[in-house]
Amino acid sequence: MANKPPQIVYRHLFGYRYALMETYIETIPIASTQPRDLVSSNGWIELTSSGVLSVMEGYAWDGPSGPLGRLNDTLNFMRGSLVHDALYQLMREGLLSEANRVEADMLLRHHCIEDGMSRFRAAYVYRAVRWFGASSARRRRSLPVVRRLAP
Question: Which residues are paired to 39 by β-bridges?
Fold first, then answer.
């Protein structure tokens, strides 16, 4: 019996399309180069210096993107989209270098193939994120936190 890839447990949402129902942990070939673990500004994502990626229960993401819209939302694309979105979020927050984008995109392709996607489709997915994904990984300025006082 072949080793089964790790699984993710999620549910559909409105707005963001999916929410993780259990924390997902995986050792990936991308690691924090800083002397401390990376933690996203909202605390949903952690990446250690040894490459352990943790995406916390409750994390919301929009799933696979692309010209086919929701037709891309197949089981063999979900785990890859989760990890890819988490890594891109770390890049947008300036915690992970955009130089890691190639590795994040290759990891997406790897997850898709491991989860049963055809190599042809996975190559298409990889090409699409290479051509069109740069703006999604680009660092963004932090938005201020707004607190509304109760009347």
Answer: 46
In a domain, 149, yes or no: no
Could you identify the residue written with the tokens 């955009």? Answer: 98
Domain-embedded: residue 145? no
pLDDT digit string (tens) for 49-94?
999 999 999 999 988 876 655 667 788 999 999 999 999 999 999 9
**142 lies in some domain:** no
DSSP 140: -
- Tell me the angle at which helices 119-132 and 75-92 cross, rounded to the nearest 10 degrees: 20
Distance separating alpha carbons of residues 57 and 60, to the nearest angstrom: 9
d(CA 140, CA 130) in angstroms, rounded, equals 19
Both tokens of 127, joined, read 């090409």
| Edge-to-edge strands, sheet with 24-27 | 24-27, 52-55, 45-47, 38-39
> How many angstroms separate the first and last alpha carbons of the chain?
62
Give a yes or no: residue 144 inside a domain.
Answer: no
- Residue 130 sits in which domain range? 10-136
Count of structural domains, the chain: 1
Q: 0.85 exceeded by the pTM? A: no
Q: How far apart are CA 34 and CA 28, in angstroms?
A: 16
